[in-house]
Inverse folding.
């Protein structure tokens, strides 16, 4: 007879992992259970990012984990995905922090930066001694990054930067910002340091989503940037878009963790909640809804594992990432909403995780490309017609 299946892994995805990948998943999972989950309810309620976790995630090698050298772990893409999955099982805010540091800041420095820039920033970022943010989105731009207004002009050996960026994770705690701007020579990435005159940040308050994450705006008023702080390897919109592909890959894995946390809460709650003389887990209505959650999680796991294997072969297409981000975010937010509903009145209490994950996922399904954007990316791939 078959042994009982893992409710969080009905297709035994674990058996497809290498020994190193399984070790990464287990070590990060233990860390999340022991150190992250106990903090997240209060962090969410207090609208405060738990900065004490930065040193710990750095010590575990989770910052820039896919980069070879520069004090980084050099893990493969599947391992990075599993890191995101386990962190988001704790909270989307912590996974967002790691995603921004790794995919949106360290990745472009490693991919497009000079050796001097890499040596200066990557080891410090891997150790959590320097925090980064990624400046692309603008207040009027949203899903159309080509509409950016932030610009820079040459002034001798320097550049003068003006403009603003909005909805920036880590904005007010960052030591450095990778800012993408329009120039006469194309779209360029600038390494803007926090103490540069004319550079200011402002935190966005009163959020009802990602409350355990720092979100803010960046303002540039005649900021003088030396040529040494310009990423030399890219002069087009392909630069920031390639960073978004990296981040979206991590999100596709991450939201599985949020969905698993919600299903696990429902499994426990419905065993204890007795109505009309029996646990509600014994009813057809509840079992069908939990089975649907499991179906969606399993599909998301298979998509993500396949995506990771393709990425590790160097054959990844942005369209494949869009499909995964779209599918998995939609599945996770639907699971979180239904879990909230199954818990009834308890579902709106922070004592239980579905409401927190549900609110976080409202941001996750929106940032790094809305659901509609990813649908249109897939549509363009199918038809060859750009309908944006």
């Amino acid at each position: 007879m078959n042994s009982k299946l893992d409710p969080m892994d009905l297709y035994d995805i674990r058996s497809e992992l290498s020994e190193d990948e399984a070790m990464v998943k287990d070590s990060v999972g233990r860390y999340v259970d022991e150190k992250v989950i106990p903090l997240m309810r209060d962090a969410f309620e207090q609208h405060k990012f738990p900065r004490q976790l930065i040193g710990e995630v750095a010590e575990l090698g989770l910052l820039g984990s896919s980069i070879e050298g520069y004090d980084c772990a050099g893990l493969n893409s599947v391992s990075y995905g599993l890191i995101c999955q386990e962190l988001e099982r704790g909270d989307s805010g912590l996974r967002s922090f790691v995603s921004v540091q790794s995919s949106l800041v360290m990745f472009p420095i490693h991919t497009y930066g000079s050796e001097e820039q890499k040596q200066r920033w990557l080891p410090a970022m891997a150790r959590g001694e320097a925090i980064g943010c990624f400046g692309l989105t603008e207040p009027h731009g949203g899903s159309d990054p080509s509409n950016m207004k932030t610009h820079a002009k040459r002034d001798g050996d320097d550049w003068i930067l003006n403009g603003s960026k909005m909805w920036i994770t880590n904005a007010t705690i960052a030591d450095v910002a990778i800012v993408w701007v329009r120039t006469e020579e194309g779209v360029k990435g600038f390494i803007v340091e926090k103490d540069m005159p004319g550079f200011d940040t402002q935190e966005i308050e009163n959020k009802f989503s990602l409350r355990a994450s720092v979100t803010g705006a960046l303002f540039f008023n005649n900021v003088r940037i030396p040529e040494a702080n310009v990423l030399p390897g890219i002069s087009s919109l392909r630069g920031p878009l390639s960073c978004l592909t990296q981040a979206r890959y991590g999100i596709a894995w991450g939201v599985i963790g949020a969905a698993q946390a919600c299903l696990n809460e429902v499994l426990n709650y419905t065993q204890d909640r007795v109505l009309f003389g029996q646990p509600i887990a014994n009813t057809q209505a509840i079992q069908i809804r939990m089975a649907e959650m499991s179906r969606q999680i399993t599909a998301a796991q298979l998509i993500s594992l396949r995506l990771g294997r393709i990425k590790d072969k160097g054959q990844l297409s942005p369209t494949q990432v869009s499909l995964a981000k779209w599918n998995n975010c939609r599945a996770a937010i639907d699971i979180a909403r239904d879990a909230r509903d199954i818990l009834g009145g308890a579902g709106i209490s922070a004592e239980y995780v579905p409401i927190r994950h549900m609110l976080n996922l409202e941001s996750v399904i929106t940032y790094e490309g809305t659901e509609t954007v990813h649908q249109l990316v897939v549509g363009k791939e199918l038809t060859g017609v750009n309908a944006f």
About this structure: The mean pLDDT is 96. The domain at 13-126 is CATH 1.10.540.10 (Butyryl-Coa Dehydrogenase, subunit A; domain 1).
